[in-house]
Task: structure prediction
Amino acid sequence: MTELTNQTIAQALEGLKKKQFSAKELTEAHIKVMEETRHLNAYITETPEQALEAAQESDKKITAGDMRPLEGIPIGMKDLFCTKGVRTTAASKILGNFVPQYESTVSGKMLADGAVILGKTNLDEFAMGSSNTTSAFGNVISPWKRSDGSNADLVPGGSSGGSSAAVSARSCMAATGTDTGGSIRQPAAFCGIAGIKPTYGRCSRWGVIAFASSLDQPGIFARDVKDCAIVLKSMSGHDPKDSTSANKPVPEFAAALTGNVKGLKVGIPKEYNVEGMPAEITAIWQKGMDWLKTGGAEIVDISLPHTKYALPTYYIIAPAECSSNLARYDGVRYGLRVDGENLNDMYGKSRAAGFGNEVTRRILIGTYVLSSGYYDAYYIKAQKLRRLIYEDFINAYQKCDVILTPTAPSAAFAIGENDDDPLKMYLNDVFTVPASLAGIPGMSVPAGLDAQGLPLGLQILGRHWDEETVFRVSDFIETAAAFDAVPQMVKKAA
Amino acid sequence: MAEIVKGETGDWEIVIGMEVHAQITSQSKLFSGAATAFGAEPNSQVSFVDAAMPGMLPVLNQYCVEQAIRTGLGLNAQINMTSVFERKNYFYPDLPQGYQISQFQHPIVGEGEIEIDLSDGTVKPIRIERLHMEQDAGKSLHDQHPTKSFVDLNRSGTALMEIVSRPDIRGAEEAAAYLSKLRMILRYLGTCDGNMDEGSMRADVNLSMRRVGEEKLGTRCEIKNVNSIKAVQMAIAYESRRQVEVLENGGTIKQETRLWDPAKGETRSMRSKEEAHDYRYFPDPDLLPLVLQPQLVEKIEASLPELPDQKKHRFMSEFGLGAYDASVLIAERSRADFFEQAAKGRNAKLVANWLLNELLALLNKEGKSIAESPISAAHLGQLVGLISDNTISGKIAKDVFADMFASGKDASQIVEEKGLKQVTDTGAIEKTIDEVLAENADKVGEFRSGKDKLFGFFVGQVMKKSGGKLNPSAVNDILMAKLKS
Result:
C-alpha cells in the first residue's frame, strides 16, 4: 500500500487538483494493488490499458483546469453493469463472452464525470447470493482474516462481493454495486467499508443486467461516507430510458454531512431484535444508539410489525421476477449455446450448462410461484405483504427521521460455511431485505470489530428520497465510531 | 342473419367470438424507437431492446397509447384510466425476451359495441369485450436452410391492439361483416392500416355450436391462421360442419386450438387445452401502471373523425341516398371524401350514380384506388354539373367521361374542344330533322301509314347526324310534331 492508495476520494481529488500526483500515478498505484491482490479474485475482467488511457485524459483535463467531479478516480465496476466494448458476464457462464455494444447509464455518467474504470468486479451469479460463492468465475475472498489465527478464507459478502473486497483491499477507491435485498449493505458491513443503496428509482437501471427489476438498485461502496456521497451524486438522476427512474432533482449529497444529528429522531425497530442474535451485534447496535444520543438525537422505539414476513415475501417476488428476466438467456441470439436435437433440447442444454445452482434454484422457485394455481397463494400474497411492509416504514417515519439497525446478523463467515443450507444463507439478508421491499434508501457504515477482529456494520435507513439524512447520520456514526481498522494484508503491505 | 347448420338430428346455431390483432399505425415500436416499416431487410429494424440484450428496458410509446385510446373511442368503448402491462412468459426463438409484454387483467379499453351491416339490409350490434395493447413477436423462417431456422426480428416489439368481441357473431356472413366494419373503423381512425395480406390485421375465430333454441354455449375451438376475410368464411363453414358431425355422432368437442390450412381447406388440431402454455402472467416490473389523464382522452375524443356509421346516416339524410349506396360510399374514407367533394353544389344522387356505376367500376377494372383516379372529385362534379344544366346529354356524358378517364382533362375542356355542347336551338334541330326526313322519304311514308316503331329509327338518324349533340327531348318533340303534321 502506498500513500496513493490509502486516501479517500475527497483527498485524492484535492491532491490531483494541487498536482501533488497525477491521475496516471494514482491509477498505476491502484493497478499495482489490483495485480498484487489477484488471489482475492475481486475482479473478473481487468482493464488496465483503458484505465491508463482514461487517466492520461484526466491529466490533460486537470492541466487544462477543467476537472470533472470524479476526475482521475480509479473505480471498480460491478460486472453486472454493461460496459461498451468490455466483456460483461454477470458472473455467469450463460453470457459466454458477451461484449455489450452499449454503456449502462450509471457507468456512462461516471465515465463522463472523469472516473477511471480499472475493471469489472466479481459478484454472485446474476447478483443472486449473499457470500459471492455462486460466481461462475470463482469465489471472492475477503481481505479480512479472523484474529484467531485460523487463516480460514472468509466471504466478502454478496452479491457485490468483488466490489466490497476491492475497495477494502485498496485496489480501487470506490466500486459500484447493485442492491436487490442487501447486496451492497451486507458486503459493506463484512468488509468494513461504507456502502449505500439509494432510493429505488434514484439511479437508472438501464444497462444493468436485471435480477429482480422491482428491487434492483445501483449504489456505491467507498472507504467512507463522504466518498459515497460524492460518487452517488455522479451516478444519480432521471433517465428517460428507465421507466422506473424518478424525475427528481439530485441533491448535493456531500453537503448534507454536517456532523450534526441534534434533534433528529432515530427509530429502533423492536422486530429487528431477532432471536439468537449474537451479543456482539446487539452491543454494536447499542453503541450506535449511545453515540447518536450523545450527539443530541432522540432514540425512539418503533415497530415494523410485518418484518417477519419480509424474507418469505422477498424470496417469492425476487425469484418470480428473476425467472422471467432470465428467460432471455436462451442461447438463440448471444451467449452460451449448447446444440440439441431440437429447439427444446437446445434450450434445456444451454440453460442447464449456463446457469449455476443458485440461479437455477431461483428460476425454479420463481416459475413455480407464478404458475397457474399457485399465483394467488404465493405471488399475489407476497405483493400484498410487500405493501404492508412498505406501509410499516411509512408509518414509522411519522415517528422518526431515520431508522438504525445492525446491517447483518453476524460478521463475515468462512467460505463454504453456509453453502449446504440455502435457508441459513438467506437469513443473512434479514435486516436488509425489508428496506429493499419498501424501496427506501439504506446505508451501512463500519462501527466496530467483533471478538475475532472482523468488522461489524450498522445500517441507517431513511425516508424515500431522503438520502441526505441517511448520509448525515451515517457520517456522524462513522466519526463517532472512529473506525480505522484495515485488513491485515493491507497493513502488511503498508 | 343467423346461419343455421342443418344436421341429421336437427338445426344447429353457430356461435362465434373473434380476437383481432391489429398492428397500430405508428412510426416506432411499442417499447423502443426502432422503425416499423413493412418489407424492410430482415433484422434491419431491431433495437437493443427488441433483441432483448442484457440490461435493456422498455419505454412505452406515448403515440401508441393515444392510438389505442382513439380506437377504443371509435369502438364506443369504455376507456380505462388505469391499465397494467404484464408479462406473458413463454420460450420461442422469435420472442427474444422470453416473454411478451401485454395487458391481461387490466386492459386499456373495456366494453364497447359496433354495428355490422348485413346483406338483407339489417343492422346488428356486436359487443366488444376489451381491447388491449401488446408487443408483436418476430418471425421464424423455416424455409431458408435445410437444417436451420432463421429469425427476423423486424416485427419484434411492434405495437398491436388485440380487440376481443363477445360471442355475438352467428355465422360466416356476420363474421365477414364484423371484420369489414372493424377494419373500416380502424382505417377511418388511422390507427391500423387493416392490410390483412401484410399481416397488419389478423383474426382468430372462437367457434362453438349449439342447437337452435339452446341458451348454453357449447365448447369452443379457437381457429388460428385465418388471414383474410374469405379464409374466415371458409374456416367457419368447415369448422361448423366438423363440430356438428362430431356432436351428432355422439362425440364431444374438445377445447383446443386449431390451425386453418388454406391449401387443404380444413382446420386441424394444434394443441389441446391440456397442452396449452401456462403463461405465468405477472405485472411487468419494468413499467409503471399506465395512468391516463382525463384531458388526454378528452383531447383525442374531440379530434375523432366522423365514423363510418355516422357518415352513412348523414349521407342518407343529407343527400337522400339509399342505405345500400350510402354504405358502399362510406366503405372507404377516401371514397366518401371523394364523393362529398364531387357532390358539393351538385345533384348528389347523380354524383353517387356516376361514382358508383362508372368511376368505381373503371377503377376496379384497372386495379386502381380512388386516390389514383385520373378523374378528380372536382372534375366528376363538373361533369355532373354539365349534365344537370343540359350542356351535354347523358349519352354524350359517357363519352366525355371516358375521355376524362383516359386524358385526365376536365369535362368542360373536352366538351369545348370536341364541340360536344348540346344543341338546344330549335332552328338547328329542325334543320337536321328536315334533312333526315328528306333523306328517308320512304320511311316517312311507312310511319305515317301506321309503322309507329320507326320513330326510334328517325331519332337515331337525327342523333347520328348531329353527333349526339342535339337535346334529346327537344328532338323527340319536334320530330313527333313534324311526322304527325
Remarks:
- The first strand of chain B starts at residue 4 and ends at 6.
- Chain B has three domains: 4-300, 306-418, 426-484.
- Residues 4-300 of chain B form one domain.
- Chain B has 15 helices and 16 strands.
